[in-house]
């Protein structure tokens, strides 16, 4: 285990642990969590994504979990994180898109996943970015940054830290506007709870706005299929 200060964060790094997200949750449970702590692993043996899906975690990619103080649950945080990641990739000359709420795609292939979990007075933001390798997944296509640019992992993490701080401080209307700029599937027909609906965007509270004929629907945590 290594521990250093970087870009205003305390970085705790491992060669391999079961899950950075689980380690961060354990820090909260034991009373050792602090704001602006980052857990990073070179590889994970039990990485996980949303809905406890397995996140395949080979060496060479970025696996991090950020611990932040929080007053309460905020559905807008998903969009803040997505924009921060996208802007980080853009700084390397890459052209990502965001699939609701916070999957990052390049050429319609997933390159990054996000898992946000609340624990006590903290929120833990888990981020996995494919740099050197990408898994084969039955449900969707994947890709890696190496296909598009020469990305140094340390530089990627440093820029990501700064972008997370920047966009967490930004007024949500600006975050919302940038998310809409980068979103894929806007004004397209998507599948929501088995129905065909039109994806309109997100509102000021972070709800997804869908339209079914003349009826508007608001969604917070459900999945859509584009």
What brief labels describe this structure?
226 residues; alpha+beta; BirA Bifunctional Protein, domain 2; eight-stranded mixed beta sheet; five-stranded antiparallel beta sheet; globular
Brief digest:
This protein has 226 residues and is α+β, with helices and mostly antiparallel strands.
Q: What report would you give on this structure?
A:
The chain is α+β, with helices and mostly antiparallel strands. Helix content is 23%, strand content 35%. It is built from 4 helices and 13 strands. It has helices spanning 20-29, 77-90, 153-169, 172-182, and strands spanning 2-6, 9-17, 37-44, 62-69, 97-99, 103-106, 109-119, 122-129, 189-192, 195-202, 208-212, 215-219, 224-225. An 8-stranded mixed sheet has the order 1-2-3-4-8-7-6-5, sandwiched between helices. Helix 2 (77-90) crosses helix 3 and helix 2 crosses helix 4 (172-182). The protein starts with a strand and ends with a strand.
